[in-house]
Amino acid sequence: MRLAFMGTPEFSVPVLSELVAAGHDIGVVYTRAPKPSGRGKKLTPSPVHQFAENNGIEVRTPKNFKNEKELEEFASFDLDVAIVVAYGLILPQLILDAPRYGCLNLHASLLPRWRGAAPIQRAIMAGDDVTGVQLMRMEAGLDTGPVLLSETVQIRDNDTAGSLHDRLSHIAAQLAPRGLAALERDALIETPQLEAGAVYADKVSPAEARIDWTKSAAAVDCHIRGLSPFPGAWFEHDGQRVKVLLSRVTAGDVAAAGAVLSAEGKLTVSCGEGAVELLSLQRAGKKAQDAQEFVRGFKISPADRL
Predict the structure, then answer these.
(1) Cα–Cα distance for residue pair 202/118, rounded to 1 Å
(2) Do 181 and 292 reside in the same domain of the chain?
(3) With contact defined as beta carbons under 8 Å apart, do 241 and 234 qualify?
(4) Are 235 and 226 in contact (CB under 8 A)?
């Protein structure tokens, strides 16, 4: 089939790679414009942009689709379908209607739960047991279209947003060619979403990433793992901000929330209910360290409260 691919982050790359390998004609790739990054603030193309250029695929980076010329050029590609994976721009109805079979989106949750920008992080932060990847037909609403294919994934006790991201990305890559093959056979069944179960996955703000030790140990652990590796859950101690990248629920003495229970051999902190062991931490400008290495270079003791 003749496709447009619309995606931006690393999550999208395996899907595009699999579609290329399956022999589909990728007429054009749409992605977000290069952004300044690194100390030199050099303009850096998105992961999808880099993959497309390396494979000789035309790349377009419009700021939006409000320009009539952009709409006309999209229509001129004479597409069978557009595949959208974490693109980052709202698509107007004229874009959704332009390909023969419309636009299909791969979304990393079990809709209607966790519609929106941060479904992987929010699923772990909420303590969900399962999530998944779904192929859906796009409508004008945010992730509201009918579901076409679905794969369910268990969320493990030690999953971070990073580890779950990687698993879901590869599942999405498997789902995309299956969906297109079924589309060619007219074998896709559309299942409307139930609005009653809709939950939205808003982007995580920097302030929201701060650890609230008054919550239960289970909630603090989910918060930490759900924000790892980015943006990173954090606490402040002795005027320094410290990110926590991995934790686990553990036994601990009853103490005030945020009290350091142990700082030798392992780093344990009391929560509103129970305690968490902090396994991997990172100070600003430093590499991530395991707890033993961290406490050797950072002044922290059982007398402290985070």
Answers:
(1) 6
(2) no
(3) yes
(4) no
Two tokens at 277? 């062991």
- For the chain, what is the domain count? 2
Whole-number Å distance between alpha carbons of 16 and 116: 21
**Would you call 51 helix, strand, or coil by DSSP?**
helix
Asked if 32 and 46 count as a contact pair (C-beta separation under 8 A), the reply is yes
Give the burial class of 203: count Cβ atoms within 10 A of its Cβ; 0-12 exposed, 13-18 middle, 19 or more buried. Answer: exposed
Burial call 292-305: b when 16+ CB within 10 Å, e when fewer: eebbeebebeeeee
**pLDDT of the residue at 41:** 84
- Phi first, then psi: give them for residue 118, nearest 5 degrees: -130, 55
DSSP conformational letter for 219 = H
pLDDT score recorded for residue 86: 97
Does residue 67 share a domain with residue 190?
Answer: yes
Structure tokens at 232: 């990173």
In a domain, 78, yes or no: yes
DSSP 269: E
Are 115 and 142 in contact, with CB atoms under 8 Å apart?
yes
The whole-number pLDDT of residue 198 equals 95
CB contact at 8 A, 223 and 125:
yes
Average pLDDT, 10 consecutive residues per value, the chain (306 residues): 97 98 97 88 95 97 93 96 96 97 98 97 98 97 96 98 98 98 96 94 93 98 97 95 97 91 93 97 94 93 92
Q: Residue 114 is part of which domain span?
A: 2-200
Residue 278: which CATH number?
3.10.25.10
Q: Where are the alpha helices (DSSP H) in 39-151?
A: 47-54, 68-76, 93-97, 119-125
Give pLDDT, residue 173.
98
Contact at 8 Å (CB) between 180 and 161?
no
Predicted TM-score (pTM) of the model is 0.95
| pLDDT at site 88 | 93
